[in-house]
Design a protein that fits this description.
- This protein is an alpha/beta fold.
- Helices cover 44% and strands 20% of the residues.
- It has a domain at 6-292: Rossmann fold.
- It has a ten-stranded mixed β-sheet, with helices on both faces. The protein has a two-stranded antiparallel ribbon with strand order 2-3. A two-stranded antiparallel ribbon has the order 4-5.
- Helix 8 (216-230) crosses helix 15 (405-420) and helix 13 packs across helix 14 (353-366).
- The protein is globular and about 55 Å long.
- The protein binds guanosine-5'-diphosphate (GDP) and magnesium ion.
- Guanosine-5'-diphosphate is lined by residues 13-15, 18-19, 132, 173, 175-179, 204, 206, 210-211, 216, 239, 242, 257, 260-261.
- Guanosine-5'-diphosphate binds next to helix 1, helix 7, helix 9 and helix 10.
- Belongs to the tubulin family.
- InterPro entries: Beta_tubulin, Tub_FtsZ_C, Tubulin, Tubulin/FtsZ-like_C, Tubulin/FtsZ_2-layer-sand-dom, Tubulin/FtsZ_GTPase_sf, Tubulin_C, Tubulin_CS.
- It comes from Agrocybe chaxingu.
């Protein structure tokens, strides 16, 4: 049996753990596992017309029929879960390969006493009492630094239990103190200890629409400064966009975190649903020649007002168009102001590969100015025949678009306005932090923005010219 390529999840801070809860709920639903980690599906293999089909029926709730021909699909749960055979020999439990960390006890306690209370191993929770008070320096240099070795011990134990560790994913917000500061510290420590493993982050960017803490732009850019160097892939989730999707499209009158947190898992869902082999090839498509440009924008379709659900019919071209529409992006950027460098799309449901390829090709033709012409085949398409729970068809994309600079520009403007006046810096210097680090974060973000801009303006001719020039030099 081929082994899964395991991922270890590290959720840090309030947002990290709250989004984490939604993420695990999605994984449980997708893999037919109940809240305590016991499989609620039973699998029956049959041979139908020479094709192996796997029927899975759920004991309660609507009957799910899952059809697969790829043996790797059976292993998918293994990416995020360790299978533990019960003492009596029959009840197999699926235990998340995850660590739940916070610098205050409240959020972890809530997770422990909530619906997923029995899911995680008790010894994978780690919290302190002090809190980080929305101060990046406390997460990175003081309070967080005291906890980091104990966290690494837990992660090391999990890594030792893996057959083929793919890497790590960190779920955190960038606007607070713990997820941002301690999350960045974890990232650099893991990078040091596991230099050849993938480091991915799901990073939640702050928006004034959702939070009132004034120093969030500081915390966010101090984190981006670290992510540029230490992460391989950062999937950006922008609270500004989540808020707008909930308000405008889903018609939620006053969205709370729970409403916001349901959105990202819908998009990740698809990446979990493709085989590990395909998922790796998607990731390779998304990585660029410039290692700095690894900030990705997720999008998902369909998002709709539940009241209008029965009036919606989503054809493949409509789903495709929606994926590239700003209203469906989980980042508040307008893709029309940038150019797509690469993108990976996954369609789910009864969709033929021809239908999908044609829809994507047509969209690229009609919007050719928004895709760089110097990377041929820069959009990869994958298909999963099983629709997500409760849907008939859906699509998701992860895009590497130069439009993401808008997100960094927005945060940089707020950062610089405060930094110019040295506002609130004593909070950070009081924890022993050097002001130089603020200037470095500011400059590094400027460089990142101008690198995106450079790629946006690059043309085929320049590339060829560049190649000739370097050939002559040799
Ligand atoms: N989407 C989302 N954002 C959150 C959630 N909780 C906090 N935030 C955002 O995260 C930032 C504050 O960070 P938080 O995670 O509370 O701080 P930490 O506990 O110190 O890591 C602010 O931008 C909040 O708006 C959540 O559950 N979901
Ligand atoms: Mg907190």
């Amino acid at each position: 049996m081929p082994t899964s390529r395991e991922i270890i999840n590290v959720q840090v801070g309030q947002a990290g753990n709250q989004v984490g809860e939604a993420f695990w709920q999605m994984l449980l639903a997708e893999h037919g596992i109940d809240h305590s980690g016991v499989s609620i599906i039973f699998n029956v293999f049959r041979h139908v017309q020479g094709t192996r089909r796997l029927f899975t029926s759920v004991h309660s709730g609507p009957l799910q029929t899952y059809t697969g021909t790829d043996p790797l699909e059976l292993q998918r749960a293994g990416t995020y879960f360790t299978e533990v055979t019960g003492a009596s020999g029959n009840a197999t439990r699926f235990v998340p390969r995850s660590v739940q960390v916070d610098l205050e006890a409240g959020v972890c306690n809530k997770l422990r006493s909530g619906v997923l209370g029995n899911l995680f191993r008790p010894d994978t929770y780690l919290s302190a009492e002090s809190g980080a008070g929305n101060n990046w320096a406390k997460g990175y240099y003081t309070e967080g630094a005291e906890l980091v070795d104990s966290i690494l011990d837990i992660i090391r134990r999990q890594a030792e239990g893996c057959d083929a560790l793919q890497g790590f994913q960190i779920l955190h917000s960038l606007g607070g103190g713990t997820g941002a500061g301690l999350g960045s510290l974890m990232l650099s420590k893991l990078r040091e200890e596991f230099p050849d493993r993938m480091m991915a982050t799901f990073s939640i960017l702050p928006s004034p629409k959702v939070s009132e803490t004034v120093v969030e732009p500081y915390n966010a850019l101090l984190s981006v400064h670290q992510l540029v160097d230490s992460s391989d892939l950062t999937i950006c989730i922008d609270n500004e966009a989540l808020y707008d999707i909930c308000m405008r499209t889903l018609k939620v009158p006053a969205p709370n975190f729970e409403n916001l947190n349901d959105r990202p898992p819908e998009a990740w869902n698809e990446f979990d649903s493709i085989s590990p082999r395909k998922s790796l090839s998607c990731m390779n498509t998304l990585k660029l020649m410039s290692i700095q440009l690894h900030f990705l924008m997720p999008s998902y379709a369909p998002f709709y007002d539940p009241k209008a659900k029965h009036f919606e019919k989503n054809s493949v071209p409509e789903l495709t168009k929606a994926l590239f529409d700003r209203k469906n992006l989980l980042v508040a950027c307008d893709p029309r102001f940038g150019r797509y460098l690469t993108a990976a799309i996954i369609f789910r449901g009864d969709i033929s590969s021809r239908e999908a390829e044609v829809a994507v090709h047509d969209l690229q033709l009609k919007n050719s100015q928004h895709f760089v012409e110097w990377i041929p085949d820069n959009v990869s398409v994958s298909l999963v025949s099983v629709p997500p729970v409760g849907q008939t068809q859906s699509a998701t994309a992860l895009s590497n678009s130069t439009a993401i600079q808008e997100l960094f520009t927005r945060t940089l403007e707020s950062f610089s306005a405060m930094f110019k006046r040295k506002a609130f810096l004593h909070w950070y210097t009081g924890e022993g932090m050097d002001i130089m680090e603020f200037s470095e974060a500011e400059n590094n973000t400027r460089d990142l923005i101008s690198e995106y801009q450079q790629y946006q303006e690059a043309t085929v001719e320049e590339e060829e010219f560049g190649e000739e020039e370097s050939a002559e030099e040799q």
